[in-house]
Predict the structure.
Amino acid sequence: MTTTPVTYPTGALIDGQWITSATSFPVINPATGKEIARVPNLGAKETQDAVDAASRALGAWSAKPAKDRSIVLRRWFDLITANTEPLAQLMTAEQGKPLSEARGEVAYGASFVEWFAEEGKRAYGRTIPTTVASRRYITIKQPIGVVAAITPWNFPIAMITRKVASALAAGCTIIVKPAEDTPLCALAVAKLALDAGVPPGVFNVVTTMDAPAVGKVLTDDARVRKLTFTGSTAVGKALYRQCADTVKKLTLELGGNAPLLIFDDANLDQAVAGAMASKYRNAGQTCVCANRILVQSGIYDRFAAALVAAVEKLHVAPGTDARCTIGPLINADAIAKVEALSADAIAKGAKVMTGGTVNAAGPLFYQPTVISGVTRDMDIVREEIFGPVAALMRFETEADAIALANDTPFGLAAYLFSQNLSRAWRVAEKLEAGMVGVNDGIFSNEVVPFGGVKQSGLGREGAAEGLDEYLETKFICLGAIDA
Ligand code: SIN
């Protein structure tokens, strides 16, 4: 396949057209504070246009054989992959993550397109043994319809492809509202989708600073049959309420407060590597980052010292610097939150073992930090840190560890490190989380179901479960069969 390098549209995408508007908003490089581009600040009217376009496009797209949709998605995967470098550069410019991580995210994002291109062909129904001689029972899977997706800034490509590829593979059409901090990656992958042959109206992108106005149209319109959202629990709850009147299906991937448990019988090197990967990936800005590192007394001091040694090797710099392992945080609010949580912990008796300040690289760069002696009364134990700060808590027994780990309304990811297989299995079963990493700090990929329990959300993304989220099951009863 011949490819042309991706260019970055700065218009929004509605019905296959690049839209401009009277007002626009800036996209800022968090490493430099400089404006990269401006994109349209769309409102309710354009959002309605996008829903109209997605509704018009639904009939033809959903009627295509799954194999035809698969061919288009496979071309989209090829184009994303062929454009890894420019997409990664764009991501680092608008989101800040190190280029090596940005390249990894392009591959991660593309993997969902590849996976769902295949999985869409396997949207199987069932035949069910009858209860009456003259009847036959069958179920078929059908696309749910028009989908609205509201996506976050921390994974500005992968969180879009994870939703869009599954929706399109199922035969749905979609309207994406990307985060206002990172609209350019959304527009770039949407352009590649058009280049791959996704028809007008099937994939629309509404850029806006006015999330409530756009969200209201998307949630009020009865033609939108599903909302998929990744972001904070507070916003997720509001969207959940707003979707009640039209009884939409929901996938909510909300906040986490991941515990990472290290038992005395853990392999120390594995525990440190796992904690580093889980905590400091994307400068601590993932929903599955270890938020509380719970360490058993017998290994606590050795683990803390080894973690500090590893953290002090991290290199804080703009993501374009080849040595960078920690880029800037997304904006000033993120820095303020990290500072407030750290200050509260220190005021209540925790100790900074390393870091604890803004880095000289610029106002949005935070020094990777380890805080020891964290206790349950501290805000850092209840709130998602979303920054490069490891909070270490001490525990004595397995029962204490499980109680501490589950002492949160959230339940997205959890991690545990132990060489004892029985303990690992027993604890993994008892942790209240949608995903558990055993002796591993990063587990996300396209073939496994990603999602949470409790107030971390509803539904799963990726894997066969991720396709099902965009399908309805229809039962057909075939009567009057001559026996
Ligand atoms: C997220 O932070 O929401 C996603 C993280 C991942 O996919 O691993």
Remarks:
- The longest strand covers residues 136-143.
